[in-house]
Amino acid sequence: MNQHITVPFSGDEAKKLKAGDYVYISGTIYTARDAAHKRMYEAVKKGKELPLSVADNVIYYMGPSPAREGQVIGSAGPTTASRMDKYAPTLLDMGLKGMIGKGKRSQAVIDAIVRNGAVYFAAVGGAGALLSKCITSAEVLAYDDLGTEAIRRLTVKDFPAIVVIDSEGHNLYETAIKDYKK
């Protein structure tokens, strides 16, 4: 099923999304990769405030290439989500409603997705140049010293993704394999 969502979004909206749904995301999302996640995790453990409110928001696991002249952002493809698995449950428990990446997630992340009524979206790897066309603005929000891994605030319009793990724990990566073997 095709769905159009506006982010940030609530748990009730997240619960409407089902594994296998094609989703077009519009609104504000944030980027963060390994180094930024480590800093956020350490800040939380020390009781410090994060540079963004994760509640009801979406984090895209992406570090863009430099923008060419006249572009908002360079190539903006997803990175492997499992690299953030150590940190994701903490952010989900703080209210994060969605993550965009590529690849499988650990059982701890799946459990946190279900516990918090969140979702995991996959974006198409290798399509970073095309995905960047859905980004209408980009600004560094925090950790500028991390370069491409800095946290960015993106405004997106009809950013294409697929719900891989829904709020009930249904996992497209598992069900698709079973369906294919039939």
From TrEMBL:
KW Iron-sulfur (keyword) present: no
Homology family: Belongs to the class-I fumarase family.
InterPro entries (alphabetical): Fe-S_hydro-lyase_TtdB-typ_cat (IPR004647), Fe-S_hydroAse_TtdB_cat_sf (IPR036660)
Organism: Fusibacillus kribbianus
Pfam families xrefs: Fumerase_C
Gene3D superfamilies the UniProt entry points to: Fe-S hydro-lyase, tartrate dehydratase beta-type, catalytic domain
Molecular function GO labels: hydro-lyase activity
Keyword terms, alphabetized: Lyase
Protein name: Fe-S-containing hydro-lyase
Domain Fe-S hydro-lyase tartrate dehydratase beta-type catalytic: 12-175
